[in-house]
Design goal:
Elements: H1 39-51, H2 56-71, H3 74-95
Helix pairs in contact: 1-2
Length: about 100
């Protein structure tokens, strides 16, 4: 006989635990992003990253820099760099309890 198990206390399952106020944020300079790629594209990224002895994340960082150098003006790249630095500064300030107003965009 198979049955679904229910909590012995009858309590509803709890969601993820909220971080403590003293917990330091880990995603100051980088964020986890969820993108849907075809299996082929994912495997291509894996193979190209392996050829350069990099993980996929490091390879995508490098690829973004290479493509930006080709496709964007130096001013556009500088603007993106300033935006990214502002986000990191704001997050560090939040961790230190000293937040400044900088939008994530």
């Amino acid at each position: 006989m198979t049955a679904t198990a229910e909590p012995a206390t009858g309590a509803a399952p709890q969601g993820p635990k909220a971080p403590s106020p003293s917990a330091k944020r880990k995603n100051i300079d980088k964020d986890s992003r969820a993108y849907f790629l075809s299996h082929e594209a994912h495997r291509l990224f894996q193979r190209m990253a392996r050829q350069r002895h990099l993980g996929i994340g490091a390879f995508m960082e490098l690829l973004a820099q290479e493509e930006a150098a080709r496709a964007l003006t130096p001013e556009e790249r500088a603007e993106v760099r300033r935006e990214a630095e502002a986000i990191a500064r704001r997050r560090r300030a939040e961790d230190d309890g000293d937040a400044e107003e900088v939008p994530d965009r």
